[in-house]
Amino acid sequence: MEDTPVRGLEGVIAADTKICSLDGVNGILGYYGYDVPEMVRKKVTFEEIVYLLWHGELPTRERLKEFDGAMKAERALSPGMLRALKQIPPGEQRTAALRGGVGIQGLFDEEAEDDSPEANRRKALRLTAKMPTIVAAQHRLAAGLKPLNPRRGLGHAANFLYMITGSAPDKLDARALDATLVLYAEHEFNASTFATRVVTSTMSDIYSAVTAGISALKGPLHGGAGLAVMETLREIGDIENVEPFVEAALARKRLFMGFGHRVYTKSGDPRASVLIELAEEVCHQPGRDAKWFDMARALDHAVQSRKGVIPNVDFYSAPLWQGLGIPMELFVPIIAMSRVAGWTANILEQQADNRLIRPRARYTGPDKRPYRTMRSRG
């Protein structure tokens, strides 16, 4: 057996999955065989995608109505949960606060330790329905505002925008956020999804697995790229500064966040082209400041022309979410409340045919040495 370690497990096939397919050479992303950018352009909803990821098929109209009703019924947080969220320090980093919030929700779930497939599906639905409410409640509490109750008449994405802003969004804004939730919902064995499968393989509970996923997503090399893009745009400050900024950054060998991808090595990230279209449409609406989108386009062109690297999904999500009025500190939590659909799909798949994930390491430390007592060590 080959004993040379693969750094970062790059290219290692760890398991079979029916959920998500990635073609890194041709730039193709599919959920259960359905092309994801195509579905987004045909206005598939996040609720349909959640159903697809859990059941392997798109829902009929009747099934979707039933499923949507079940999700809406689980959106609200209990009074005890809200009291617990109020105890989280307002200055806590938002993704860390979400991780804590999900853990607390597990303490309130009477089925938390029931590991049956039926109970895990119910818990997956609760988690997916409640995570936007947790994110919005924590955001408003940190700002000294009262959390808003979910509105049953709004879809998943529109309801989230309402809960953070206090106003129901227009159709374009709701569709734009809904599309990003679809694009981020699942992405094969990325770091956070693999973390959830490792935890699941130990036969731990679904809440533990999802908090592990959030913990991995919190890292700047995984979920934090969009936030880093927005920070870069703010550092540049104005579109006139893009070219000199790029020249100076290249001279210092600075890394440009939001460009390139570990898997999409040839044709680029297929999700990015969809986001460019959405971001341009949203940010160039009358009455909106398109500054951040225009700067992002200029930065994209400047970096591509010099380095030949293509932006990934995180690059244009930053100006899009900024255009929707979403605070920067919520960028990673939004990815989490989307990716929970994929995490839970992978948890269910892992549980259905489980084997403990236990790789080996190659030892590179000292050869065997005799033990010396404290007296002899001086």
Helix content: 55-70%
Shape: globular
Neighbour order of strands in the largest sheet: 1-2-3
What is the total number of structural domains?
A: 2
Q: Can you count the beta strands?
A: 3
Radius of gyration (CA) equals 22 Å
CATH H level, superfamily name of the largest domain: Citrate Synthase, domain 1
How much of the sequence lies in strands comes to under 5%
Residue runs with pLDDT of under 50 for 5 or more positions = none
Largest sheet geometry: 3 strands, antiparallel
Q: Can you tell me about this structure?
A:
The chain starts with 19 loop residues before the first strand and ends with a helix. It has a three-stranded antiparallel sheet with strand order 1-2-3. It is mainly alpha-helical. The model has no long low-confidence stretch (mean pLDDT 94). The radius of gyration is 22 Å and the shape is globular. The protein has two domains: 15-219 and 340-352, Orthogonal Bundle (Citrate Synthase, domain 1), CATH 1.10.580; 225-323, Cytochrome p450-Terp, domain 2. Helix 6 runs parallel beside helix 7 and helix 8 packs across helix 16 (331-352). The chain is built from 17 helices and three strands. 44% of the residues are buried.
Summarize the structure.
With 378 residues, the chain is mainly α.
Which descriptors would you attach to this protein?
single chain; mainly alpha; Citrate Synthase, domain 1; Cytochrome p450-Terp, domain 2; 2 domains; 17 helices; 3 strands; 57% helix
Topology:
Elements: E1 20-23, E2 28-31, E3 34-35, H1 36-41, H2 46-55, H3 61-73, H4 79-85, H5 94-108, H6 117-142, H7 156-165, H8 171-184, H9 191-201, H10 206-217, H11 225-236, H12 242-251, H13 270-283, H14 291-307, H15 313-323, H16 331-352, H17 374-377
Helix pairs in contact: 2-16, 3-6, 4-5, 5-6, 5-10, 6-7, 6-16, 7-8, 8-13, 8-15, 8-16, 9-10, 9-16, 10-16, 11-15, 13-15
